[in-house]
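Can't paste images in this forum, so I'm doing it all in text. The chain is below; anyone willing to post the predicted structure tokens underneath?
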Amino acid sequence: MKVNRLRPVVGALMAAATLTAVLTGCEKGGSAAGETAASAGAAKSAGTTAGTTAEPAGSVATETSTGTSTGTSAGTSKAKPSAATPATPAAPAGSAPGCADKPPTPDDYDPDEFALFRIEELPADTGKVNLVIQHGAWGCPGEDTDGAPFVVSGEDSRWALDQAAYVTAVTPITDSTENRRIGVQELIDWVDAHPDSGLVFRYETGDDGAIHRLEQVFTP
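Text version of the structure:
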């Protein structure tokens, strides 16, 4: 009879012990969860702090820019100064580039022009006449002249002119400042009437070496 009475009491005690264990486990679980959450919060806080204290990307760009600036400055300071270009001497007053201010030498002669002084007849069967000429070069214009003179030097030379040559002339052979075609005989007549005039002509030769084109150069 006593045993039967104790069973309910033992059962109640056991139930109380079980409830206590359950409650204790819950309390521990809650504490562990709290600790876990606290750890996660601390980790997040640490990450935020690390992100805040990390050097921003702009700082790297600034350092790069500073390095470039320093390199440029250093390069500029090391560059050698360019040599000064020597000044070109000024041409004398009244002179033109390349003009002859004294009687020219054969190396200075104009290769395409000469001064005509006389014309000599040749036998008619040759079909040519001789031009008595002098070689020269264009001189420097004077202060009181409108154009440059043709300066000759050396001795007279003779050059054959074909009787059928293409000839043009300006003043004073014609009354024009533009070239007009004239005949070879018209040229001969004028030069015979005005010997040693020294008019300047530009010429071209043919296959036979004689002059086949003769054009007077206008000189003011």
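Strands lie at 113-121, 128-134, 136-138, 150-152, 157-169, 180-182, 199-205, 211-216. Residues 26-95 have pLDDT under 50 and may be disordered.
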